[in-house]
Specification:
Blueprint: E1 5-9, E2 12-16, H1 22-34, H2 45-52, H3 76-79, H4 83-95, H5 97-117, E3 123-133, E4 142-155, H6 160-226, H7 234-266, H8 296-299, H9 301-322, E5 327-339, H10 340-345, E6 351-359, H11 367-433, H12 439-474
Antiparallel strand pairs: 1-2, 2-6, 3-4, 4-5, 5-6
Helix pairs in contact: 4-6, 5-6, 6-7, 6-9, 6-12, 9-11, 11-12
Length: 484
Amino acid sequence: MKAKQLVASRCRYVLVSKSSDWLLWLTLSASLLLGGCSVTEPPPAEESLATTLPESTHVQESWLATTDTGKVDDGWLKGFNDPRLEELVSEVMVSNQSIRAVAAQVDAAAALAVQAGSALKPTVGLAAGTSSADASGLPTNLQSSNAFLSVSWELDIWGRVRAGAAAGEAGYEATKADYEFARQSLVAQTAKAWFLATQIGGQKALAEETVDIYRRLLDLVESRAQVGKAQPQDLPLAKANLAGAQSNLRRINASHKEILRSIEVILGRYPSGRLAGATEFVALMPHVPAGLPAEILARRPDLIAAERRLAAAFFGSQQAEAARLPKISLTASAGGVDSGLANVLGLSNPISAIGADLFAPLYAGGALKAGVDVADAQQKAALAVYGQTVLQAFKDVETALSNEELFREREQYLQAVLAESAEAYRITEAQYEVGRVDLLSLLQTQTALLSAKSSLIAIRNERLAQRVDLHLALGGSFEEAGKN
């Protein structure tokens, strides 16, 4: 074995040595890596929020709407006690195409995070080849073959690679939170569509009842007309009301088919409109503890996603700053050459080498400084988006909590309207039969009764949909804890 040779070329120093010197190379790598600059962690979410929101919009200690601030529980879907809805949600989680697309985005983000972190590890490669050539003046054709194993590792002295890896990991976590929020939103969409379908199913049953009522009324008017007890306008008026009720039934049938097709698309089915709907609500209105405003920052998936994107932008800014500093990479290779020329020249075989590369950016036309400016601007934008997302989340909760009481009171009033309208219709119907009131009076009280029934069906749907919005706003999962 020949003596060690030191070769210098453009700030690169290659030491040709025995394989035992790899230990020196590894030791040097570890010492430089451990001595490098650390990556700064982003500030807590509450601190970031305080820097972007004005004093008047800081997080409240409790919700402005009077409510129970107990712990927000998961499993809100089961609280509705609607087995059919639970079946639909189970199917949606398996078959919905949109959620599959978001799941694929999570897989892509995970791969990107691995890709970003791979720069922290050595790159190992293998090169091999054979060749032959005529060499004038040499005793024989030269046949040669070679094989080399090479290793390259950038020493992350300034934390550039680690900041990139941290940004990739934060981006992955943001995408995972997006996926979770998409799941929660999809279940909320499914529940609200199911409740709306139930409302329209109830309206359809009411429209069918209305057609029957107007048909019986027409029969009554025709009977009265035959004995001369009807007014001249009664018969055409009764026919017009029956035709209007039949037209309304057709309209509601079309709406019912449309909402059923919408649910089928959510379920990943062909939109045939054959889904079995319901005409009466079975869902309950369970009690909902609202927790505290500050807790929503760590519980609601879309806020978590926005905070993680802010963290990714924070790390991206550090990465851009570190890119302006010198880069140092360690390289090593080991292999052998089987060559007639090598034998003639007396070169040693096998051969190993270690070295270091230094690259210090001196001038790049302002590209590196621009990169820092871009990263800083992106960080400011992410901070603003996070603040706006938090404000919207607080609005969602405050609105939903306020509407809880308003919708409950509206339902109570409508129940009173229905009771009084039913009594008024009973009295008017009896008066019409004995000729004390005309048909128009009967139709007016009848219309008021049917309208009250329709409004009560609608407010029931609105309350259930509002309750779904509240669950989504508070950030509790539709799944029971430990089952997602």
